[in-house]
Amino acid sequence: QVQLVESGGGLVQAGGSLRLSCAASGRTFSSYAMGWFRQAPGKEREFVAAMRWSGASTNYADSVKGRFTISRDRTKATVYLQMNSLKPEDTAVYYCAADTRPPGGSDFSTPYEYDYWGQGTQVTVSS
Q: Is 11:3 a contact under the CB 8 Å cutoff?
C-alpha cells in the first residue's frame, strides 16, 4: 500500500510560481514511477510530469516543458512539482500518483498504469 498526500496548491497570478508536494507513505521502491496529472473542469485527466522514484527517466508533457520540474527528496519520501511561468490554462486540480509496476518502455504518461492516487490540490492561475 502507498498513501499519497498533495499540498501546495493555491491561487497565483499569471507568470507566478508554485511548488506542489506529494508526501508518500507506505512502501516505495526505486522501480516505482511517480507522476503528476491534472484535471480541469469538463476535461479529461491529463499527464503533466513523471519520474522513477530512483530519480531517473523523467518525462514532461509538451505543454509544461521548460516551465515545470519534477523532483524528489528520498529522505523525506516526497515528490515535488515546481511550476514556473504559470498560465491561466494551467488551472486545474493536480494529482500525484504512483505506478508500482511500470511496464517496460513506458513513458509513465498513461493514467491507467497508476495504482495509487492522492486526493488532489487545486491550482488556480488568474490572468
A: no
The string of pLDDT tens digits covering residues 8-65 is: 999 999 999 999 999 998 877 778 999 999 999 999 999 999 999 888 789 999 999 9
The Cα 69–Cα 38 span in angstroms is 15
80's CB contacts (< 8 A; 6+ apart) are: 19, 20, 21, 22, 69, 70, 71, 72, 73
With beta carbons less than 8 A apart as the criterion, state whether 118 and 4 touch: yes
Give the per-residue pLDDT at 106: 85
In angstroms, the CA 41 to CA 32 distance is 29
> How many residues are present in the chain?
127
With contact defined as beta carbons under 8 Å apart, do 116 and 98 qualify?
A: yes
Cell numbers describing residue 55: 530519480
Burial of 97 (0-12, 13-18, 19+ CB in 10 A): buried
Please write down the HEC assignment for all residues of 66-108. CCEEEEEECCCCEEEEEECCCCHHHCEEEEEEEECCCCCCCCC
